[in-house]
From TrEMBL:
<feature type="binding site">
    <location>
        <position position="186"/>
    </location>
    <ligand>
        <name>NADP(+)</name>
    </ligand>
</feature>
<comment type="pathway">
    <text>Lipid metabolism; fatty acid biosynthesis.</text>
</comment>
<keyword id="KW-0443">Lipid metabolism</keyword>
<comment type="subunit">
    <text>Homotetramer.</text>
</comment>
<dbReference type="GO" id="GO:0006633">
    <property type="term" value="P:fatty acid biosynthetic process"/>
</dbReference>
<feature type="domain" description="Ketoreductase">
    <location>
        <begin position="4"/>
        <end position="184"/>
    </location>
</feature>
<comment type="similarity">
    <text>Belongs to the short-chain dehydrogenases/reductases (SDR) family.</text>
</comment>
<dbReference type="GO" id="GO:0008202">
    <property type="term" value="P:steroid metabolic process"/>
</dbReference>
<keyword id="KW-0276">Fatty acid metabolism</keyword>
<keyword id="KW-0521">NADP</keyword>
<dbReference type="GO" id="GO:0051287">
    <property type="term" value="F:NAD binding"/>
</dbReference>
<dbReference type="Pfam" id="PF13561">
    <property type="entry name" value="adh_short_C2"/>
</dbReference>
<keyword id="KW-0560">Oxidoreductase</keyword>
<dbReference type="InterPro" id="IPR011284">
    <property type="entry name" value="3oxo_ACP_reduc"/>
</dbReference>
<dbReference type="InterPro" id="IPR020904">
    <property type="entry name" value="Sc_DH/Rdtase_CS"/>
</dbReference>
<comment type="function">
    <text>Catalyzes the NADPH-dependent reduction of beta-ketoacyl-ACP substrates to beta-hydroxyacyl-ACP products, the first reductive step in the elongation cycle of fatty acid biosynthesis.</text>
</comment>
<feature type="active site" description="Proton acceptor">
    <location>
        <position position="153"/>
    </location>
</feature>
Amino acid sequence: MKDKCAVVTGGNRGIGRAIAIKLAKEGARLIINYRSDEEGALETLRMIEELGGKAHIFKADVSKFNEALELINYSKEKFNGVDILVNNAGITKDGLILRMKEEDFDKVIEVNLKGTFNCIKHAVPVMLKKKEGIILNISSVSGVMGNVGQCNYSASKAGIIGLTKSLAKELGGKNIRINAIAPGFINTDMTKVLSDEVKESIRKATALKKFGEPEDIAETAAFLCSKRSGYITGQVISVDGGMAI
Ligand code: NAD
């Protein structure tokens, strides 16, 4: 990935931070996107610089079409383009259908699915110009299997899978690859709010009987964002300890 430029959305913490650091270790220059947590983004930046890497941070809400454009434009300005786009930003607003508010459904779709579309929409013209590009979307085991209390989140993550497969067919002939990772239960701020009871039932349903770490996702992300996966496109790789078997 030497001298490639990678944009990672939601790079201020969790899986996004681990992916940004891993790509930097492999030689990529990073644009670390964040929505509001500037301190977290600066911490990711500091960690990359400590490794001798190059990075910048950029504030943008990816669910806003124009802010996604500003993010991609910033990458063009700083690093002359976007070679790798990692759509990692995501939120949950869980609830059973009887209690789920319309705005909770809309918001999750807006950030997770529309946000992914927004960034891709603006990055693809840049990649077409360069005649190459790699896109990685972070889906979820919930998008593959469904999950009680997550109809909004599961729909957004299943939507990401359809989007990934369609665009792989659309852009493959233009030397742009696009894949997705479907993580299982990963130890981050997103999952730490779950009750011990829920966590235990998930652990039991996982073949490896343990949770994953952000670095587990980053390993696969680095593979999918490198030439090592040059003949892989349109795929959804489960990194879930054997939850969705
Ligand atoms: P997290 O909550 O720590 O990270 C989510 C990141 O997205 C944060 O950095 C947040 O600031 C950012 N974000 C949210 N809304 C945004 C917006 N509108 N614009 C820009 N950035 C925004 O959780 P995580 O576990 O690190 O999640 C990262 C991705 O992995 C998400 O897409 C999540 O759905 C997915 N995922 C996580 C798990 C898990 O078990 N942790 C499992 C499957 C999928």
